[in-house]
Amino acid sequence: MQVLEANKPFEIQELELTEWKQRPVKNNFFELVLIKNGEGTQCINYNQYGYKKGSIFLLPPLKCHSFTIEKPTKFVFLKFTDSFFKNVNRINIDRNEWFKEASYILSNYNQLPGDIIKNDVDRNHLESLIGMIVQESMNYGNESINLATSLMTSVLEVLIRNIKKSTYFEVPKNNADDRITKMLTYINEHIDTPEHLRVDHLSHIFSMSSAYVSEFFRKQVGMSLREYIIKAKLKLVEIRLLNSDFTLTEIADDLGFTDVSHLSKTFKRYTGISVREFKNNGEYMLLKRHSCAV
Description:
The structure is a single chain. Strands 1, 2, 3, 4, 5 and 6 form a 6-stranded antiparallel sheet that branches. The radius of gyration is 20 Å and the shape is globular. The protein has helices at about 85, 95-110, 120-140, 140-165, 180-190, 200-205, 210-220, 225-245, 250-255, 260-270, 275-280, and strands spanning about 1-5, 10-15, 30-45, 45-50, 55-60, 65-80. It starts with a strand and ends in a 13-residue tail after the last helix. The protein has 11 helices and 6 strands. The model is unreliable at about 1-5 and about 290-294 (pLDDT under 50). It folds into 2 domains: about 1-165, Jelly Rolls; about 180-280, Arc Repressor Mutant, subunit A (Orthogonal Bundle), CATH 1.10.10.60.
């Protein structure tokens, strides 16, 4: 076992295993897993997906995944950690943009099994980026930290590009209307800009009448547009509360809540607990989709 750290914006771990053993998982953003060699199956939420050399997965920040190893397997785990966002002043990047991109991935990836990458070009990009990060992490130093962090930004961009191309949103499986996936992608990309979420604006973007937008959305997603937007915002609230040092005032302002009181009341109405209780518990509520097999 080899564990590599780089000032804790992330952690890299290389493991060669013949049998899977559940690893301790701290609540954080997520892990990217590269299969360097070997064969077997991945399981999340009682769903299974075969893996082989070159497979790339995202693991949710919960103890809800496992691998059945059929042939000895070398895993590379690239874990995004919350301490990066809390100590970012030592690293020369745009904190808000980095956090926004990582949060987008976590809040929109549906924690289903399967290879996250859909084309060989992006797969090769990620394999190269991960390889470079491993090398830089082993050659620990200030220059390595800055370069590795830049490489991590590129990793995020590749992941976001593939998530946008795929149906990771929670919509009925028999849904044949691709307009809803495009609408959900648009809403989640602009979740922090209320003017983009108004019915009249969405009707213009998607060439529907204002009266039909809400009806269409409810029929396709199974909840009202307003409820979806609120829950999407609260997922980001959860991420910020557990993984950053943003204040409640900053979170309320950034996500379009009237004030801290409005945010707190809305949060409790949808999660059943107060913001203080949530932070003390340290576990996601709305972001946690289902219990998983261990």
